Amino acid sequence: MAIRMPRIIKKSSTDKDVPKGHFAVYVGEEQKKRFVIPISFLSQPLFQDLLSQAEKEFGFDHPMGGLTIPCREDVFINLTSRLRN
Is the pLDDT of residue 2 over 50? Predict the structure, then answer.
């Protein structure tokens, strides 16, 4: 079963493909995937909850070298799809 990725959330592989007004996060429990999302999500309470979880789990020591969100990929996609609307 395929999961349709919203246009504003893109899997990304390099720093060069992060457009202005966006930032990269790593998501997943075992296998981390990189997503590029708009910075406007930072002001959303649902996303701030994810950031709080990341702070509790990793502090400032993120194993991927960037912001790591400690949740399942499908949960992240669902949440960011709701933020888009």
Answer: no
- Tell me, yes or no, if the pTM score tops 0.70: yes
Q: Give φ, ψ of 49 to 5 degrees.
A: -60, -40
Per-residue H/E/C for 8-35: CCEECCCHHHCCCCEEEEEECCCCCEEE
Within 8 A by CB and 6+ apart from 17, the residues are 10, 36
Structure tokens at 31: 């296998």
Question: Which of 29, 25, 31, 30 minimizes the C-alpha distance to 10?
Answer: 25
The residue type at 54: A
* CA distances in angstroms from 43 to 11, 20, 33, 38, 51, listed in the order given: 22, 17, 23, 11, 11
